[in-house]
Amino acid sequence: MNILKLLLPILLSASLHNSANAQNYTATDAGSNITFTIKNLGFAVNGSFKNLQGNIVFDANRLNVSSFNVTISAASIDTKNGARDKHLKKDSYFDVVKYPTIAFVSDKIEKEAAANTYKVTGKFTIKNKSKTVVFIFTAIPNTNGMQFTGKVDLNRRDFEVGGSSLVLSDNLVVTLNVMAQKK
Q1: Is residue 10 included in any domain, yes or no?
Q2: 9 within a domain of the structure (yes/no)
Q3: Cα(35)–Cα(129) distance, rounded to whole angstroms?
Q4: Count of the separate structural domains present in the chain
Q5: CA 183 – CA 175 distance, rounded (Å)
Q6: Rg of the Cα atoms in the chain
Q7: Is residue 152 within 8 Å of residue 178, measured between CB atoms?
């Protein structure tokens, strides 16, 4: 019993020490781009989102303590067409009044064979609808923190965006280029 009393504080201290050593980052708009491409009437429509916020914990040697918890403002959607952007903010698309943010929270991060390349599994949440996604990303250190880049394929119908529109493609590609500054 006395050994247990001695070992328990040591084990707890080691456990806390391991998670405390992972680097914490703040996702920032500066240096970041969140863009998407979707086809409408067969033509590619490009757009972007702003107001990136969130916390990233990343340690390439200890992925089990690494995580992403980031959001963007749904109302920041910008397709370079004001009338279309206004339409996309309505309830049949992003319903930005009721659902102001789009979120991604990771569940698991794994190393891939290529240098600085990882696979993340997590949940995208749009309009309070969550969908598990898996995608590949790179993590490149820089002087201020880390640059994370990746692409994820989404189906807009999984999130009830755009209703039953027949002219709008179901599938879109979201490109993530996230600057994360050390805390």
Answers
A1: no
A2: no
A3: 20
A4: 1
A5: 25
A6: 19
A7: no
CATH number of the domain that residue 111 is part of: 2.40.128.110
Domain annotation covers residue 174: yes
Length of the chain as a residue count: 183
Residue 43 near residue 3 (C-beta atoms within 8 A): no
The parent domain of residue 31 ranges over 22-182
- Give per-residue pLDDT as tens, 137-173: 999 999 989 999 999 999 999 999 998 888 999 999 9
Rounded distance between C-alpha atoms, residue 51 and residue 29, angstroms: 6
Task: Report how far residue 92's alpha carbon sits from residue 136's, in angstroms, rounded to the nearest whole number.
Answer: 30
The model's pTM: 0.87
Q: How far apart are CA 55 and CA 41, in angstroms?
A: 37
Residue with structure tokens 């959001």?
71
The string of DSSP codes covering 17-79 is: HHHHTSEEEEEEEEEEEEEEEEEETTEEEEEEE---EEEEEE-TT-GGG-EEEEEEEGGG-B-
pLDDT digits (tens, 9 = 90+) for 21-32: 689 999 999 999
Q: Is residue 3 part of a domain?
A: no
- Cβ pair 79, 46 in contact under 8 A: yes
